[in-house]
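Title: [Solved] DUF2768 domain-containing protein 3D structure

Original question kept below for reference.
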Amino acid sequence: MFEDPLLKMWISFIAMGLMFLSVVITILTKEKLTGFLRYTLLTISFACIMVSGLIVFLVTFSGPVPD
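Solution (posted by the thread starter after getting help):
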């Protein structure tokens, strides 16, 4: 699936960025917001963590790249 090692690295960086974004959104919404906006942002945060988990799964199980 991912044949280029550099592409694999950048895709994994995107996954780590999504995880970080998810944590920041969750912390900010739990401390600062209430109501509809809070639950909307928490849903976005959950979606970010799910997408990043899927990316990590795909990158990990795509196997080693050829030399």
